[in-house]
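> run fold Ig-like domain-containing protein
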Amino acid sequence: MVDLNRARRRFLHGDCTPFQIHSQPNSSMRFMKTVLPYRPTLRTRTRPLFRLALLLGLLPLKLLAQFCPNGVTVAGGNGQLPNPEFVVVDAAGNVYVSDRNLDRIMKFPPNSTQGEVFAGGNGEGAGLNQLNQPRGLALDQQGNLLVADRENDRVLLFPPNSTSLTLGTVVAGGNEEGNGSTQLYNPTDLTLDQQGYLYVYSSGINRVVKFPPNSTSATSGTTVAGGNNSGPNLNQIDGCDGIAVDQDGNLYVSDMFNYRVLKFPPNSTSLTSGTIVAGGNGRGSGSDQLFIPYDIVVDGSGNLYVADQGNSRVQVFPLGSTSLTAGTTLVGNNQLASSKGLFLNGNGDLFVVDGVNNRVLRFSPFRFTGQPPTSQTVCTGATVTATVSVSGTVSGYQWYKDNVSLGTSQQQATLSLTGVDTDDAGSYYVVVTGCSSLTSTAFALTVNEALTVSISPSTTAGSAGSLPARREPTP
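> ok
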């Protein structure tokens, strides 16, 4: 006897060599078809010389998504935003923009440039339904919106679905301007870490203050960066409109008039010196320079995005960058006039406040989010499929075999081959076109001859094919 499970495993792994199974005449045989999901594994090995070349700007930055060059207006551009500053986007795709001149926060639903007042909009003032030059924004895990209310020296929290009638809750400051532990002085930006701690930059005294979760106006904050007057030293900050915290708890500060971005480790204090991770080479437009860095964000891979306002561009610096690192321009001055607020959503879309044009643009990445398997082995007669997935707008697919186009029959995201023969073996890949062109990794298809199974009935007593004689009962 042959182990049927072993035979089935051979078949499923493309082993089509003939074998025999001896069984009883009435035995049954069943093969189960199993489809296992393809789980791609990404392994990156960076050699020391490669890392050095990357930091020196001798190699292009490969770890970033390729963004489509033309942004899409998702807010403003129609007179609704006379002075937009910062932007955040919730999980449902609603876009929130701080409208500084009109002392309000505007909310724009997905796929609509017509907004509605979400908070403020009741004239300049200090009431809980009023704002005075609102700046930085942040969303917490419950969907509450936090607003840096600059001239009121406080941070207000507004619940989801707020309107101009909603009263905000003070979660930091609100005790007049000052340098006390419960005070803020002209806050311009804020951010939250993964544990819910709130970080606020007080522009009047050039420091970043950290508040615990569920803080109120009575809660004392701790200085975690700056607070040593303005200056060029590494424990000083000279103007800031952007702070960010990465997943490891490191704090990033856009040091505007030192034309650099500083990074501070977790649990830093006013005595801690930051390290330069972008710029710091004087004001300029070189790839290793910044000119009034505004807002900043850090993605999950540690790449740093900087709204370089004076150069009307967005620069990106890789994890581990220094003042020697050349940034990569994602969006340039052909799209922007005074880049301000930045936001990255979970899909990798980059939102940029285009200050002079009074709008918010969305730039979508164009990249593979799923690749075909690296290899596949089947038997003749089988059906073979391979699928790719892409983020961004796709205008066409074209599959190739051994560098030869498969024509109009294979112009979908999924390659489909039915009843394959040995001639179908080869190397397959797809070219995807959109705002640019992407070529997938190739996968090797191996086709073996079909499995042959012969069943030989075992012999029994008596003549082959004859029935045994009927026995009469004994009287």
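The domain at 368-448 is CATH 2.60.40.10 (Immunoglobulin-like).
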